[in-house]
Write a structure and sequence with these properties.
alpha+beta, 2 domains, eight-stranded antiparallel beta sheet, 4 helices, 50% helix, 13% strand
């Protein structure tokens, strides 16, 4: 399922006659391409971590089989020593000494059978060990190929995100251009009305005050009861529960977005910041009995405080164990508080992003 509310495709004739419609269509296609790239990257990442787990399991099996092989070999040697040191089968029984020669022969036959079974077990273990080593070698080769594929998809995902950002800037530039033209028309109409009313040559418009704001604590850039955490070009798929290596699974959703894209509080409540080795720069937004965990932020905006839904708290990055990878926000929903068990956030994100 695509995690975007995409515009309805426009006809070629309409796009050709309406530059803004064409820019919007281009942006829509760029978003679709970025979503497909993100899905391919997530799938490749899942395959890579599964191969890692399979390779680790094969190494454990090989070690266990080698230990069994060593134990059986040692047992066979002990049996052989017993046979020729008089422990249970003295040599003089075979050369006319006292005792029951027939009984000694039976014991020898039994010992031979025991040793034969042990040798067969060792041979079977050797065969299985060799097969597992071949499997491990094949898995390592697949891992190398999967790693290369993952790197290529990473590059593709970055290129698609850059294309989305370029299309967004182009659309915004065109919007600004069209808005400026509209303001110019309105200004000219206002001047004409003023001239007609005052019978003067020209009337200068009142200066329009410009405003600017920096990314500071308390800045609200979106509104609603539940707000999408990433405010800008973004793409994501449902990877909750996917393998993440060493027996771990993915506990959230990765929202891919360009470096520095604004990140906001999804609900009104409170926020505090606490970094960790895996999540890097991390934030915890709590409201209504639920905590929302944000990871891999590039930076923090402000400190621990009460926040409104849509209030800026940081920007998209790739800190923590995401260093060197594509920039994204790892997002979790934890009912019950910061230490609550995470649930799949994808349905909620798909409904609001």
């Amino acid at each position: 399922m695509v995690a975007f509310a995409l515009a309805t495709p426009l006809s070629a004739a309409h796009a050709a006659s309406d530059p803004l419609a064409a820019a919007q269509a281009h942006l829509t296609q760029a978003i679709r391409d970025a979503t497909a790239a993100a899905a391919a990257y997530d799938n490749a990442q899942t395959k890579y971590y599964k191969l890692e787990d399979d390779s680790a399991a094969a190494r454990v099996q090989i070690a266990q089989l080698k230990a069994q092989q060593h134990k059986l070999g040692r047992l066979a040697r002990i049996r052989a020593v017993e046979a020729y040191t008089g422990g249970s089968m003295p040599l003089d029984s075979f050369f006319g000494g006292d005792g029951n020669v027939l009984d000694s022969a039976r014991r020898a036959t039994l010992l031979d059978r025991v040793d034969a079974r042990g040798n067969a077990a060792i041979a079977q273990l050797s065969l299985v060990t060799d097969q597992l080593q071949v499997k491990e070698s094949a898995l390592n080769k697949e891992l190398s190929q999967a790693r290369d594929a993952l790197d290529q998809l990473h590059s593709r995902e970055q290129a698609e995100e850059a294309a989305v950002e370029g299309a967004r800037h182009a659309e915004q530039a065109l919007r600004n251009q069209l808005a400026a033209a509209q303001r110019l028309r309105e200004f000219r109409a206002m001047v004409a009305r003023a001239q007609a009313q005052a019978h003067v040559a020209a009337v200068a418009p009142a200066p329009i005050a410009s405003s600017s704001s920096s990314a500071s604590s308390g800045t609200v850039i979106a509104s609603g009861g539940w707000v999408c955490p990433v405010q800008g070009p973004r793409s994501f798929t449902d990877t909750y529960g996917a393998p993440r290596g060493n027996g771990r699974t993915h506990k959230g959703t990765d929202i891919f977005a360009p470096l520095g894209t604004p990140v906001v509080a999804v609900v009104s409540g409170s926020v505090f910041f606490q970094g960790d080795p895996d999540g890097g720069n991390a934030a915890y937004v709590s409201g209504g009995g639920t905590t929302y965990y944000y990871a891999h932020l590039n930076d923090y905006v402000g400190g621990a405080r009460s926040v409104s839904a849509g209030e800026l708290i940081g920007h998209v990055g790739n800190t923590g164990d995401a260093a060197g990878g594509p920039t994204h926000l790892h997002f979790e929903i934890r009912p019950g508080g910061p230490n609550g068990a995470a649930i799949d956030p994808y349905p909620t994100l798909a409904a609001h992003c």
